[in-house]
Design a protein that fits this description.
Layout lengths: L1 E2 L37 E7 L4 E4 L2 E3 L1 E9 L8 E5 L5 E5 L7 E8 L2 E6 L7 E7 L9 H33 L3 H18 L3 H4 L3 H7 L2 H6 L10 H10 L6 H19 L2 E2 L2 H19 L11 H26 L3 H18 L14 H18 L3 H4 L1
Helix pairs in contact: 1-2, 1-7, 2-6, 2-9, 6-7, 8-9, 8-11, 9-10, 10-11
């Protein structure tokens, strides 16, 4: 197995809009799940309508903590870090609203990088890393965490293939009711491990498997080339037909098998996992809880549950190392997970989530507030394990 990121440990974590950025400034761990001893470099990234700029714009190779603040860019909702000229995303954070802050941490080898803030006038900001181009190696403790998550992710991918086949078999059989019933549970598992999709092939398969309608409109080929869960969702709930569904179902099955095959050769460092946990809750705040995804089917609560499970599994692996480093972070994350999980459980009578359209505004806002608290708590992890 090889760690993803050409540079080494990458991923996402952060503070929610309106919250303090101080959580991301935690002292990096010196052992356990963390990296080698030594303080991380801190890079402040300012996002404006004009673009995104790193200060300093050059840092030595090693652990780096990025604090990203959107000052006034209404059209920028996400920050990404990549090797210059490379499509593979090393770290990303969503739900970056004006006035909001996001934090992520990763260990970088020497090279040229770009901060991408699509929607700004100049959407690329340069970053130079000097010194050694040698990719860092994992400590035994880090390797154990990477191996444990790799085993977990492959198991989830197996369950995803099985659950999705129940969904796609119903489509091929022409059984719309059974297909609708199977959609949410299958898609929930993909949401759990979706954050790895940017890494296994630069996000191409994630686009084929899980592109939302708005993103498909802007992709090469437009809506005519749209495939995956959400295309079938619109077919069933939005168009009330199964015409064309069999071909889409078979394509989805094949793409998930490919996803699982590519996942075999990728493992994820503790920093990548910590950042991925934050990115998962970012997505729920950005699209699931506002009902911008799965709005045809009303299955947004299945999506949120998948993201919360993603954060929970990652936290369980990092928690022993975090306890050596800090600061009450374990208690904060545990309490936030328990709070949001309790709200989801109350909306899952008989083992099935209610249609999100039936959840009133106050309950939605309570879940949003709880997700923000969880996002803030998770934002403390990357700087402790980088």
């Amino acid at each position: 197995m090889t760690a993803i990121c050409a540079a080494a440990a990458a991923g996402c974590g952060g503070a929610s809009a309106g919250s303090s950025a101080s959580a991301g400034a935690a002292t990096p761990a010196s052992g356990g799940a963390g990296g080698a001893a030594g303080a991380a470099q801190t890079v402040a990234v300012t996002v404006t309508a004009a673009g995104c700029a790193a200060r300093p714009a050059s840092v030595p190779a090693g652990p780096v903590v990025f604090t990203v603040r959107n000052t006034n860019a209404d059209d920028v909702d996400e920050i990404e870090l990549a090797k210059a000229g490379d499509e593979d995303i090393l770290a990303s954070r969503e739900n970056l609203k004006p006035g909001g802050t996001r934090v992520f941490a990763l260990r970088l080898a020497a090279g040229s990088y770009s901060l991408n803030c699509e929607g700004a006038t100049n959407g690329i900001g340069p970053l130079t890393v000097t010194g050694s181009a040698t990719e860092p190696t994992l400590t035994p403790a880090q390797k154990a965490i990477a191996d444990s998550y790799h085993t977990y992710a492959l198991g989830q991918a197996d369950q995803l293939i099985t659950k999705t086949k129940t969904f796609t078999d119903a489509i091929r059989a022409g059984n719309m009711a059974a297909a609708m019933d199977a959609y949410g549970p299958a898609h929930m598992i993909y949401e759990n491990i979706e954050f790895v999709g940017d890494h296994v092939d630069g996000g191409k398969l994630d686009t084929a498997i899980d592109a939302r309608e708005a993103a498909a409109q802007e992709s090469p080929g437009g809506l005519a080339a749209w495939t995956g869960f959400h295309r079938i969702e619109k077919l069933l709930w939005g168009e009330h037909t199964m015409t064309g569904g069999a071909a889409l179902a078979t394509r989805l099955d094949a793409d998930l098998v490919t996803f699982r095959r590519l996942l075999v050769s990728h493992s994820f460092t503790p920093a990548e996992l910590a950042n991925g946990a934050g990115a998962s809750i970012d997505e729920s705040l950005d699209v699931h809880l506002p009902a911008a995804e799965d709005h045809y089917s009303g299955t947004s609560l299945w999506d949120v549950a998948g993201k919360v499970e993603s954060a929970r599994e990652i936290f369980s692996l990092l928690s022993p190392g975090l306890a050596q480093s800090d600061t009450g972070v374990n208690d904060q994350v545990s309490a936030a997970l328990t709070n949001l999980t309790g709200q989801l459980t109350a909306l899952r009578p008989g083992g099935r989530f209610v249609n999100y359209a039936t959840v009133d505004g106050p309950k939605r806002q309570t879940m949003i507030n709880s997700a923000i608290q969880l996002d803030d708590a998770l934002s403390r992890m990357p700087g402790l394990v980088v």
